[in-house]
Amino acid sequence: MYSEPVIDMNSASTGKELLAPEKWVELHADYLYKYAMTRINDEDAARDLVQETFLAALEKKEKFRGDSTERTWLTAIIKYKVIDVYRTKANAFTSKDEYGTPPDEAEFFDPDLNNWKKEHWPAPFADNVHDPLHNKEFMSVLQKCLNKLPPLWMSVFKLKHMDDEKTDSICEDLRISTSNFWVIIHRAKVNLRSCLQKNWN
Amino acid sequence: MKKELKTEIERIAYNCRKATLLIEKKQIIELNPREKMELKLHLAGCYICRVYEQQSILINTMVRSLFNSPVNEVKLDEEFKKRLQKMIENKISGRR
To answer: What is the ipTM of this complex?
Structure first.
Protein backbone atom coordinates (compact mmCIF):
# COMPACT_ATOMS: atom_id res chain seq x y z
CA MET A 1 0.00 0.00 0.00
CA TYR A 2 1.22 3.46 -0.90
CA SER A 3 1.49 6.06 1.78
CA GLU A 4 2.72 9.62 1.78
CA PRO A 5 6.21 10.01 3.16
CA VAL A 6 6.27 11.74 6.50
CA ILE A 7 8.10 15.03 6.34
CA ASP A 8 9.25 16.70 9.49
CA MET A 9 8.66 20.38 8.76
CA ASN A 10 10.90 21.43 11.63
CA SER A 11 13.94 19.51 10.65
CA ALA A 12 16.78 21.34 9.00
CA SER A 13 16.80 18.95 6.09
CA THR A 14 13.49 19.88 4.51
CA GLY A 15 15.21 21.64 1.64
CA LYS A 16 13.49 24.88 2.52
CA GLU A 17 15.14 28.09 1.47
CA LEU A 18 16.84 30.23 4.06
CA LEU A 19 17.54 33.94 4.01
CA ALA A 20 21.07 35.27 4.02
CA PRO A 21 20.73 39.06 4.15
CA GLU A 22 24.49 39.62 4.30
CA LYS A 23 24.65 38.25 0.75
CA TRP A 24 21.68 40.14 -0.69
CA VAL A 25 23.68 42.98 -2.18
CA GLU A 26 26.14 40.63 -3.85
CA LEU A 27 23.49 38.25 -5.15
CA HIS A 28 20.42 40.35 -5.88
CA ALA A 29 21.13 44.10 -5.94
CA ASP A 30 21.89 44.33 -9.67
CA TYR A 31 18.97 42.11 -10.53
CA LEU A 32 16.52 44.17 -8.48
CA TYR A 33 17.95 47.39 -9.86
CA LYS A 34 17.48 46.17 -13.42
CA TYR A 35 13.98 45.00 -12.53
CA ALA A 36 13.07 48.47 -11.28
CA MET A 37 14.84 50.30 -14.12
CA THR A 38 13.02 48.33 -16.81
CA ARG A 39 9.75 49.29 -15.21
CA ILE A 40 10.16 52.83 -14.02
CA ASN A 41 13.13 54.10 -16.02
CA ASP A 42 14.41 56.51 -13.38
CA GLU A 43 17.86 55.83 -11.93
CA ASP A 44 17.37 57.58 -8.61
CA ALA A 45 13.92 56.15 -8.03
CA ALA A 46 15.16 52.67 -8.97
CA ARG A 47 18.05 52.91 -6.48
CA ASP A 48 15.63 54.04 -3.79
CA LEU A 49 13.40 51.09 -4.52
CA VAL A 50 16.28 48.63 -4.16
CA GLN A 51 17.19 50.15 -0.81
CA GLU A 52 13.58 50.22 0.40
CA THR A 53 13.15 46.62 -0.70
CA PHE A 54 16.10 45.44 1.38
CA LEU A 55 14.84 47.43 4.37
CA ALA A 56 11.32 46.07 4.07
CA ALA A 57 12.69 42.55 3.65
CA LEU A 58 14.77 42.86 6.81
CA GLU A 59 11.73 44.11 8.69
CA LYS A 60 9.67 41.11 7.76
CA LYS A 61 12.22 38.40 7.34
CA GLU A 62 10.48 36.32 10.00
CA LYS A 63 7.57 36.01 7.62
CA PHE A 64 9.68 34.33 4.99
CA ARG A 65 8.55 30.73 4.97
CA GLY A 66 11.01 29.37 2.51
CA ASP A 67 8.39 28.32 -0.02
CA SER A 68 10.05 30.37 -2.69
CA THR A 69 13.61 31.32 -3.34
CA GLU A 70 15.11 34.36 -1.71
CA ARG A 71 15.16 36.16 -5.04
CA THR A 72 11.50 35.44 -5.79
CA TRP A 73 10.60 36.76 -2.38
CA LEU A 74 12.63 39.95 -2.81
CA THR A 75 11.19 40.42 -6.29
CA ALA A 76 7.66 40.20 -4.93
CA ILE A 77 8.51 43.00 -2.50
CA ILE A 78 10.01 45.29 -5.14
CA LYS A 79 7.14 44.57 -7.50
CA TYR A 80 4.69 45.85 -4.93
CA LYS A 81 6.76 49.00 -4.62
CA VAL A 82 6.92 49.47 -8.38
CA ILE A 83 3.12 49.34 -8.54
CA ASP A 84 3.04 51.97 -5.83
CA VAL A 85 5.21 54.22 -8.00
CA TYR A 86 2.90 53.57 -10.98
CA ARG A 87 -0.10 54.62 -8.94
CA THR A 88 1.52 57.77 -7.63
CA LYS A 89 2.64 58.82 -11.12
CA ALA A 90 -0.75 58.13 -12.65
CA ASN A 91 -2.49 60.12 -9.93
CA ALA A 92 -0.18 63.08 -10.36
CA PHE A 93 -0.78 63.19 -14.11
CA THR A 94 -3.27 65.66 -15.56
CA SER A 95 -5.36 63.76 -18.05
CA LYS A 96 -8.37 64.79 -20.05
CA ASP A 97 -10.51 61.77 -19.21
CA GLU A 98 -10.86 58.76 -16.92
CA TYR A 99 -8.57 56.73 -19.18
CA GLY A 100 -5.51 58.77 -18.32
CA THR A 101 -5.35 60.29 -21.82
CA PRO A 102 -2.97 63.25 -22.18
CA PRO A 103 -4.60 66.53 -23.26
CA ASP A 104 -2.62 66.64 -26.51
CA GLU A 105 -3.28 63.03 -27.55
CA ALA A 106 -3.65 62.64 -31.32
CA GLU A 107 -6.95 61.42 -32.69
CA PHE A 108 -6.02 58.35 -34.72
CA PHE A 109 -9.50 57.45 -35.88
CA ASP A 110 -12.20 59.47 -37.53
CA PRO A 111 -14.63 60.48 -34.77
CA ASP A 112 -17.69 59.62 -36.86
CA LEU A 113 -16.65 56.88 -39.22
CA ASN A 114 -14.23 55.17 -36.81
CA ASN A 115 -11.78 54.35 -39.56
CA TRP A 116 -8.10 55.34 -39.55
CA LYS A 117 -7.38 58.95 -40.31
CA LYS A 118 -5.20 58.93 -43.38
CA GLU A 119 -2.23 60.63 -41.69
CA HIS A 120 -2.19 57.85 -39.10
CA TRP A 121 -2.39 54.87 -41.42
CA PRO A 122 -0.11 52.12 -40.23
CA ALA A 123 2.54 51.45 -42.84
CA PRO A 124 4.81 48.41 -42.92
CA PHE A 125 8.01 48.91 -40.94
CA ALA A 126 11.22 49.23 -42.89
CA ASP A 127 12.04 45.79 -44.23
CA ASN A 128 15.77 46.09 -43.77
CA VAL A 129 15.30 44.52 -40.38
CA HIS A 130 14.67 40.84 -40.78
CA ASP A 131 15.12 40.07 -37.16
CA PRO A 132 13.84 42.99 -35.10
CA LEU A 133 14.14 40.94 -31.92
CA HIS A 134 17.88 41.13 -32.20
CA ASN A 135 18.03 44.60 -33.52
CA LYS A 136 19.55 46.77 -30.84
CA GLU A 137 18.43 49.99 -32.42
CA PHE A 138 14.82 48.90 -32.74
CA MET A 139 14.82 47.84 -29.10
CA SER A 140 16.12 51.17 -27.92
CA VAL A 141 13.50 53.04 -29.95
CA LEU A 142 10.86 50.74 -28.48
CA GLN A 143 12.14 51.52 -25.01
CA LYS A 144 11.99 55.25 -25.67
CA CYS A 145 8.49 55.01 -27.08
CA LEU A 146 7.36 52.96 -24.09
CA ASN A 147 8.67 55.59 -21.73
CA LYS A 148 6.87 58.32 -23.62
CA LEU A 149 3.49 56.77 -22.90
CA PRO A 150 1.36 58.60 -20.35
CA PRO A 151 1.89 57.04 -16.89
CA LEU A 152 -1.32 55.05 -16.54
CA TRP A 153 -1.01 53.57 -20.03
CA MET A 154 2.62 52.69 -19.49
CA SER A 155 1.79 51.00 -16.18
CA VAL A 156 -1.07 48.95 -17.57
CA PHE A 157 0.90 48.07 -20.67
CA LYS A 158 4.04 46.99 -18.84
CA LEU A 159 2.18 45.00 -16.22
CA LYS A 160 0.32 43.14 -18.93
CA HIS A 161 2.93 42.62 -21.59
CA MET A 162 6.11 42.56 -19.56
CA ASP A 163 4.97 40.82 -16.39
CA ASP A 164 2.05 38.91 -17.85
CA GLU A 165 0.03 40.00 -14.88
CA LYS A 166 -3.62 38.91 -14.59
CA THR A 167 -6.07 41.49 -15.89
CA ASP A 168 -8.07 41.41 -12.65
CA SER A 169 -5.11 42.18 -10.47
CA ILE A 170 -3.94 45.01 -12.76
CA CYS A 171 -7.40 46.57 -12.51
CA GLU A 172 -7.35 46.21 -8.77
CA ASP A 173 -3.79 47.49 -8.31
CA LEU A 174 -4.31 50.53 -10.52
CA ARG A 175 -7.95 51.03 -9.59
CA ILE A 176 -9.47 50.91 -13.04
CA SER A 177 -12.50 49.07 -14.39
CA THR A 178 -12.21 46.18 -16.84
CA SER A 179 -13.71 48.21 -19.66
CA ASN A 180 -11.24 51.02 -18.99
CA PHE A 181 -8.50 48.40 -19.04
CA TRP A 182 -9.32 47.48 -22.65
CA VAL A 183 -9.53 51.08 -23.75
CA ILE A 184 -6.13 51.74 -22.19
CA ILE A 185 -4.48 48.62 -23.65
CA HIS A 186 -5.82 49.67 -27.05
CA ARG A 187 -4.80 53.33 -26.89
CA ALA A 188 -1.39 52.46 -25.51
CA LYS A 189 -0.67 50.11 -28.39
CA VAL A 190 -2.00 52.40 -31.11
CA ASN A 191 0.17 55.14 -29.69
CA LEU A 192 3.24 52.94 -29.25
CA ARG A 193 2.99 51.56 -32.77
CA SER A 194 2.70 55.02 -34.21
CA CYS A 195 5.73 56.18 -32.22
CA LEU A 196 7.75 53.25 -33.60
CA GLN A 197 6.76 54.05 -37.15
CA LYS A 198 7.79 57.68 -36.71
CA ASN A 199 11.08 57.11 -34.96
CA TRP A 200 12.51 54.03 -36.53
CA ASN A 201 13.72 53.68 -40.06
CA MET B 1 -34.47 43.02 -42.86
CA LYS B 2 -31.90 42.54 -45.57
CA LYS B 3 -31.08 46.19 -45.59
CA GLU B 4 -30.41 46.20 -41.88
CA LEU B 5 -27.99 43.33 -42.22
CA LYS B 6 -26.10 45.20 -44.87
CA THR B 7 -25.77 48.22 -42.64
CA GLU B 8 -24.55 46.00 -39.85
CA ILE B 9 -21.85 44.52 -42.06
CA GLU B 10 -20.86 47.94 -43.24
CA ARG B 11 -20.66 49.13 -39.69
CA ILE B 12 -18.15 46.38 -38.94
CA ALA B 13 -16.31 46.68 -42.22
CA TYR B 14 -15.39 50.31 -41.70
CA ASN B 15 -14.87 50.38 -37.97
CA CYS B 16 -11.08 50.27 -37.62
CA ARG B 17 -11.28 51.57 -34.07
CA LYS B 18 -13.30 48.54 -33.01
CA ALA B 19 -11.23 46.15 -35.11
CA THR B 20 -7.94 47.28 -33.57
CA LEU B 21 -9.45 47.04 -30.09
CA LEU B 22 -10.43 43.44 -30.88
CA ILE B 23 -6.91 42.78 -32.18
CA GLU B 24 -5.55 43.86 -28.79
CA LYS B 25 -8.15 41.91 -26.89
CA LYS B 26 -7.49 38.77 -28.90
CA GLN B 27 -3.87 38.74 -27.79
CA ILE B 28 -4.93 38.65 -24.15
CA ILE B 29 -8.19 36.67 -23.99
CA GLU B 30 -10.28 34.58 -26.32
CA LEU B 31 -12.81 36.62 -28.25
CA ASN B 32 -16.43 35.56 -28.15
CA PRO B 33 -17.87 34.08 -31.38
CA ARG B 34 -19.47 37.33 -32.39
CA GLU B 35 -16.27 39.31 -31.91
CA LYS B 36 -14.31 36.67 -33.83
CA MET B 37 -16.72 36.94 -36.72
CA GLU B 38 -16.60 40.74 -36.70
CA LEU B 39 -12.83 40.83 -36.70
CA LYS B 40 -12.53 38.25 -39.45
CA LEU B 41 -14.97 40.17 -41.58
CA HIS B 42 -13.16 43.43 -40.99
CA LEU B 43 -9.68 42.11 -41.65
CA ALA B 44 -10.79 40.45 -44.86
CA GLY B 45 -11.41 43.86 -46.31
CA CYS B 46 -8.97 46.10 -44.47
CA TYR B 47 -5.30 45.98 -45.44
CA ILE B 48 -4.37 48.72 -42.98
CA CYS B 49 -5.66 46.81 -39.99
CA ARG B 50 -3.90 43.68 -41.20
CA VAL B 51 -0.64 45.63 -41.12
CA TYR B 52 -1.60 46.89 -37.68
CA GLU B 53 -2.25 43.38 -36.39
CA GLN B 54 1.06 42.07 -37.62
CA GLN B 55 2.96 44.93 -35.99
CA SER B 56 0.95 44.74 -32.80
CA ILE B 57 1.92 41.09 -32.35
CA LEU B 58 5.54 41.92 -33.12
CA ILE B 59 5.55 44.71 -30.54
CA ASN B 60 4.24 42.40 -27.82
CA THR B 61 6.95 39.87 -28.54
CA MET B 62 9.59 42.58 -28.42
CA VAL B 63 8.35 44.12 -25.21
CA ARG B 64 8.61 40.72 -23.57
CA SER B 65 12.15 40.31 -24.76
CA LEU B 66 13.24 43.79 -23.71
CA PHE B 67 14.53 42.15 -20.54
CA ASN B 68 17.21 40.22 -22.29
CA SER B 69 18.17 43.05 -24.51
CA PRO B 70 21.65 44.58 -24.22
CA VAL B 71 19.93 47.96 -23.87
CA ASN B 72 19.07 46.93 -20.36
CA GLU B 73 22.46 45.93 -19.05
CA VAL B 74 22.19 48.36 -16.21
CA LYS B 75 24.12 47.89 -13.00
CA LEU B 76 24.22 49.62 -9.66
CA ASP B 77 27.43 51.52 -8.97
CA GLU B 78 29.83 49.96 -6.46
CA GLU B 79 29.69 52.93 -4.12
CA PHE B 80 25.95 52.57 -3.69
CA LYS B 81 26.27 48.83 -3.22
CA LYS B 82 28.77 49.35 -0.43
CA ARG B 83 26.33 51.66 1.30
CA LEU B 84 23.57 49.10 0.94
CA GLN B 85 25.83 46.40 2.34
CA LYS B 86 26.68 48.56 5.33
CA MET B 87 23.04 49.40 5.89
CA ILE B 88 22.10 45.73 5.94
CA GLU B 89 24.96 44.77 8.24
CA ASN B 90 24.07 47.54 10.68
CA LYS B 91 20.46 46.41 10.71
CA ILE B 92 21.35 42.80 11.35
CA SER B 93 23.80 43.54 14.14
CA GLY B 94 21.41 46.05 15.69
CA ARG B 95 18.86 43.33 16.03
CA ARG B 96 21.06 40.81 17.73
So the answer is: 0.83
